[in-house]
C-alpha cells in the first residue's frame, strides 16, 4: 500500500469531458463460460460502435494477459487480481468517455461485484452494464474453438471453469443473452438497444 500519495484532480469534470467529446463513458462487462461468445460479441460490438463514430475499446482476457497482467497466473489470488485490474482499467477507459467492452470469463460473483462497485462508488457513478453471455455447457463444449474443453476433460488443464471449477452465473445482470438462441448480430442489437434506451448513445 503506497503512502504519501495525494489524488490530483483534473481541470475538467467528467460531465464537462462528456460534453466536450459528445460521448458518455460506460463499461460493458461480458461474463460467461469459455466459448460462450464473449470475444466474438465484443469484437462485433466494438466495430459497430466505432462505425457509428463512437469511441469504444475492447479489453479481452487473453490479450490483457499478454501485457498488463502477464505477471499473473491462474491460481485463486491471481484470478482475483486479474479481474480487479481489469475493473480499474475499464473504469479509467470509461472515465475518458470511452465505452469499455470487457470480455473475461470472470466466473465469481464477488469479483464482478468488486468491478461494479468501483464504477458505482465513483462520483459521479459510471454505468456498469453486466452482460451474461450464456449458452449451455454442452453447446460451448461442442464449439470449443480453442480446444480447451477437450484438454480440460483430459485433465490437462486444472480448475477449468464449467468442468473442474465453478461458474457463478449473474443473479441480476443488466442484459442476458442466450447465444445458442441469438446470433452475433442479434447480440449486438440487444446491447445497442440497451445503450440507446439508457441514453448512453444517441438513438
Ligand atoms: N450466437 C453466437 N454468439 C457468439 N459466438 C457464437 C455464436 N454462435 C456461435 N458462436 C461461436 O462460438 C465461439 C465463441 O468463441 P469466443 O472466443 O467468442 O468465446 P469466449 O466467450 O470469448 O471464450 P473464452 O472465455 O475462452 O475467451 C466462436 O467460434 C463463435 O463463432
Ligand atoms: Mg474470449
Oligomer: single chain
> Count the helices. How many?
8
What can be said about the biggest beta sheet?
5 strands, parallel
Mean pLDDT: 96
**What structural category do the secondary elements indicate?**
alpha/beta
Number of strands: 5
Low-confidence stretches: none
Strand order of the largest sheet: 2-3-1-4-5
What is the element string, with H for helices and E for strands?
HEHEHHEHEHHEH
Small molecules in complex: adenosine-5'-triphosphate, magnesium ion
Whole-number radius of gyration?
Answer: 17 Å
Helix content: 40-55%
How large is the share of residues in beta strands? 5-15%
Q: Shape from CA axes?
A: globular
Distance between the termini: 44 Å
Domain APS kinase: 24-178
Pfam family, one: APS_kinase
Pathway: Sulfur metabolism; hydrogen sulfide biosynthesis; sulfite from sulfate: step 2/3
Function: Catalyzes the synthesis of activated sulfate.
Architecture blueprint of SSEs:
Layout: H1 14-21, E1 26-31, H2 38-51, E2 56-60, H3 61-66, H4 76-95, E3 99-103, H5 109-121, E4 128-134, H6 137-143, H7 148-153, E5 175-178, H8 184-197
Parallel strand pairs: 1-3, 1-4, 2-3, 4-5
Helix pairs in contact: 2-8, 4-5
The structure holds adenosine-5'-triphosphate and magnesium ion.
EC number: 2.7.1.25
Family: Belongs to the APS kinase family.
Pathway: Sulfur metabolism; hydrogen sulfide biosynthesis; sulfite from sulfate: step 2/3
Short summary:
It is an enzyme of class 2 (transferase). This protein is α/β, with parallel strands linked by helices and 203 residues long. The chain is 43% helix and 13% strand.
Amino acid at each position: 500500500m503506497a503512502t504519501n500519495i495525494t489524488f490530483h484532480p483534473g481541470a475538467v469534470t467528467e460531465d464537462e469531458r462528456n460534453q466536450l467529446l459528445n460521448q458518455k463513458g460506460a463499461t460493458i462487462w461480458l461474463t460467461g463460460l469459455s466459448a460462450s461468445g464473449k470475444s466474438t460479441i465484443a469484437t462485433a460490438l466494438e466495430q459497430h460502435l466505432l462505425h457509428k463514430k463512437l469511441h469504444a475499446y475492447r479489453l479481452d482476457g487473453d490479450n490483457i494477459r499478454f501485457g498488463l497482467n502477464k505477471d499473473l497466473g491462474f491460481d485463486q489470488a491471481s484470478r482475483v487480481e486479474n479481474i480487479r485490474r481489469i475493473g480499474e482499467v475499464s473504469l479509467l477507459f470509461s472515465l475518458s468517455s470511452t465505452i469499455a467492452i470487457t470480455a473475461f470469463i470472470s466466473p465469481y460473483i464477488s469479483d464482478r461485484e468488486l468491478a461494479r462497485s468501483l464504477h458505482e462508488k465513483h462520483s459521479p457513478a459510471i454505468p456498469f452494464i453486466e452482460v451474461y453471455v450464456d449458452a449451455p455447457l454442452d453447446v460451448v463444449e461442442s464449439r470449443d474453438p480453442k480446444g480447451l474443453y477437450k484438454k480440460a476433460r483430459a485433465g490437462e488443464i486444472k480448475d477449468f471453469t464449467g468442468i473442474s471449477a465453478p461458474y457463478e452465473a449473474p443473479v441480476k445482470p443488466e442484459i442476458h443473452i442466450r447465444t445458442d438462441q441469438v446470433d452475433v448480430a442479434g447480440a449486438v442489437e440487444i446491447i445497442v438497444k440497451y445503450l440507446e434506451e439508457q441514453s448512453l448513445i444517441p438513438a
